[in-house]
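Sanity check. The docking grid for 1-deoxynojirimycin depends on where the pocket ends up, so I'm generating a full predicted complex first rather than guessing from homology. Inputs follow.
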Amino acid sequence: MTAGQWWRDAVVYQVYIRSFADGDGDGLGDIAGLRSRLGYLSELGVDAIWITPWYPSPMHDAGYDVADHRGIEPTYGTLTQAEALVTEAHRRGLRLLLDLVPNHTSSAHPWFRAAWEATPGSPERQRYIFRPALGDGPPNDWRSEFGGPAWSRAGGDEWYLHLFDREQPDLNWDHAEVRADFERTLRFWFDRGIDGFRIDVAPALAKDPALSDLGGDWTSRGPRPGSAVSGDHPYWDRSEIHELYRSWRELADSYDPPRVFVAEAWVDGPERLAPYVRPDELHLAFNFDFLACPWLAPALRTVIDQTLAVHGSVGAAPSWVLSNHDVARTVSRFARPQSDRPVRVLAELVGIEADAAVGEARARAAALLMLALPGGATLYQGEELGLPEVEDLPDHARADPIFERSGRLDPGRDGCRIPLPWDGAEPPYGFSTGRVTWLPQPAGWASRAASAQAADAGSVLSLYRRALRIRREHPALGDGSMEWHRSDHGVLSFSRLPGFHCVVNVSGAPQPVPPGCDVLLASGPLAAGGMIPPDTSVWLSTDGAPR
Ligand code: NOJ
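Predicted complex below; grid placement will be based on this.
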């Protein structure tokens, strides 16, 4: 590892706070619940925690609609509790990242309330993106990421922009007050010992001042496939965004130890991701190409090679990720037949037959692949328990705004946000002392509960614990380089110095363990004769082995 740059090979654990652990019995996760489970995270062996937004919010988008960036949502706790959490996490050697939501605020933010009451052209409206109607309709043809138009009507025959829900008005990042206020927010949390931020929708902040129509030239998140990548999409991944991130980097570097940023940037391939992680910009960017990659050896190899090349070209460490609170659970994506088409969300899986055992085997193998690659990784809570997507939530329980905004056609993201099972035979599985959880948990998760898995050496949790322990201790793992070995079709085989080899069997046939290697860890039982079964990864020690 590069000295002092802990983030280059950190394993970060994403806490989706509403669904992690409930300390006060109201069925919603909170700071007290999280604090009571810090021991679990230390034992798991992660290096840092990223907590999804915990700020005051009307919760139209589960907290990504922030009403006050420098406060704590009362249902989650208090600022004093937050400060105590930072202290205790640090005492346990865990770093803490928060979620910064700079593209938009909640419509309940005092700034938007003032803008709503104010008249066209007023200073209050200039912090957001208000525009006169075009004829009787919205100012342009942009669509919300959640479905429907990206504009809603306000008073004075004006419309305001919201790339997400109508309760999430977009801020105007050309406004000096907006910039100054976010710097204040960064300092507020950095001064309280927070180690860094994940930046929500990092590519969306800069907008074309002309607000030109998308027309036929662009998709909502970039150019049409196959067309030139230029950085002048009307609102996605525009070149001028980088100046802002350079200024934030300076601010983060003024702290001791320096604070860290992770970009949430769904962009058009690794070449577009690289600028975000240049040496004077953000430290890390989630590798969503890896997340969305099908379980097919050529596709995986291509993503890995491109990621390493492009990150290497700017001196950045990759940040591998298999899932998060916006995509269908890994186990459920991999339970489907795999095709070249990347798959992310539940809507893309509905109606496709699933094989749960295959999904779990692949997810376990993918975890060992991810944790063996050069760089760092982020785990999404429940991934270490092998939780599947809950695909059959009743409509009345669905809370994600995508469900309603899509005219109830898209089931949305609730299925990966179900409260965690900790112990016990039935819901709420130790998540809460109350009986009702904010999203219902399925029957049949008792064997998935953390305590049941901790007692089972063959569980997904035990696999993650062992993998993270080996990763910490093995000098070859984490930041660094790797070398591919020639292998059969459908097999990924690579080594890392000193003395480490990983074989991932993505083929349909058992594969031999390379000669002279000792098995350190396997994602599933080996077959007769020590062969590596399909959908299985092995970590091998090559110390002293002939090469
Ligand atoms: C990305 C977040 O991960 C997602 O949950 C949220 O809905 C959007 N950004 C809008 O903030």
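Relevant for the grid: Residues 297-314 form the longest helix (18 residues).
Also worth noting: DSSP finds 14 helices and 18 strands in the chain.
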